[in-house]
């Protein structure tokens, strides 16, 4: 797992080798910037926006305004917004197709998921923007419309955010979370809201965390995986008869549970309804909902048991998943050959295929296929309707995006992004 919710440590290495200088935001500009030929160090996506880190400490974002972009509510007063292809005709224009600089500087990495994003600076400060339901001890909806300093995150070694749930990892391997808890996703038992940062008990030292709105999985330092939260499709790795019951008698897991059948794991990722883990031998195992073949095991049967992905032609080096519960589901990997392989039912996995080439039982791609035109990949970020990658070595990197351009989040006409 990498860009969907990047850990803090790896991007620091990239910054050292690829940074274009001191960077920062010029307070005298209007927020737009011409990145020219600056190398793309990283790129991250969420449900309806994309952010590029060109390696100079700046963050450039584009997509739907105002929640996901972090450009501030005043941006629309000085800039012409564009029509969003996916918005009803009577809605006012609310999209930005041009990569636009945010008011935050000296950034070393960004995490992004759902409609939420956070950036960490060289000094360790963390600024967040987007949807943060239940943040700041408030049980209602909160939107940070521009990068906002969050002091509680300054000590985070790694961070994962997803709308109404936030978790951080400290230097000692402890996990603390806050947010809504209707499915037990904060890991402290069942209650509607945990308004303060609360340590998740019962875990060994953790090295990586992955968060969705209603579930968390964590990778421990021995290569085991622990999950808690929503388990309606077995995505927390627990059998239905062993699950707890949460809201509306839905299956959930309110305390961290070790996922059986996993060892020597080096990476993981989670979506609303399924999970995937990467072993040190390059094998990927997935579990949870399989309505659209997103587990990659040549069936459409959901399971709580981690099952190896079949027909993957190469060893994987990272794994990435995303979905909206029931409606879309995607799993992707970067292969050892630096190509991207995806499966599931989204436009990400079906790139270049006509409808009659999809599996007729699900209108999906139930087994891994190579994504055409996406080669030499070193970074990958997968959202619900689009994906982006960084391709090439440190001397000549390219940013690539594909999928549905419903909120102009692909950036195809910007001059910075290639759309193969």
**Biggest pleated sheet:** 5 strands, antiparallel
Residue share in helices?
under 10%
Report the uncertain regions. Answer: 1-39
Question: How many strands appear in the DSSP assignment?
Answer: 29
Strand content: 35-45%
What are the key terms here?
2 domains, 4-stranded antiparallel β-sheet, 2 helices
What's the structural blueprint in terms of helices and strands?
Blueprint: H1 9-18, E1 42-45, E2 49-53, E3 60-64, H2 75-78, E4 95-101, E5 107-113, E6 116-121, E7 126-131, E8 143-149, E9 158-162, E10 165-169, E11 175-180, E12 193-199, E13 206-212, E14 215-220, E15 225-230, E16 244-245, E17 251-258, E18 265-270, E19 274-279, E20 284-288, E21 303-308, E22 316-324, E23 328-335, E24 340-344, E25 365-370, E26 377-382, E27 386-391, E28 398-403, E29 417-418
Parallel strand pairs: 28-29
Antiparallel strand pairs: 1-2, 2-3, 3-4, 5-6, 6-7, 7-8, 9-10, 10-11, 11-12, 13-14, 14-15, 15-17, 16-17, 18-19, 19-20, 20-21, 22-23, 23-24, 24-25, 26-27, 27-28
Brief digest:
This protein has 420 residues and is mainly beta.
Task: Explain what the structure shows.
The protein has 420 residues and is mostly beta strands. The protein has 2 domains: 1-163 and 407-420, no CATH class; 169-384, Regulator of chromosome condensation 1/beta-lactamase-inhibitor protein II (Methylamine Dehydrogenase, Chain H), CATH 2.130.10.30. 3% of the residues lie in helices and 40% in strands. The chain contains 2 helices and 29 strands. It has helices at 9-18, 75-78; strands at residues 42-45, 49-53, 60-64, 95-101, 107-113, 116-121, 126-131, 143-149, 158-162, 165-169, 175-180, 193-199, 206-212, 215-220, 225-230, 244-245, 251-258, 265-270, 274-279, 284-288, 303-308, 316-324, 328-335, 340-344, 365-370, 377-382, 386-391, 398-403, 417-418. The strands form 7 sheets. Strands 13-14-15-17-16 form a 5-stranded antiparallel β-sheet, with no helix packed on it. A 4-stranded antiparallel β-sheet has the order 1-2-3-4, with no helix packed on it. Strands 5-6-7-8 form a 4-stranded antiparallel β-sheet. A hairpin with a 4-residue loop joins strand 14 and strand 15 (225-230). The longest helix has 10 residues, at 9-18. The protein is globular and about 55 Å long. 58% of the residues are buried.
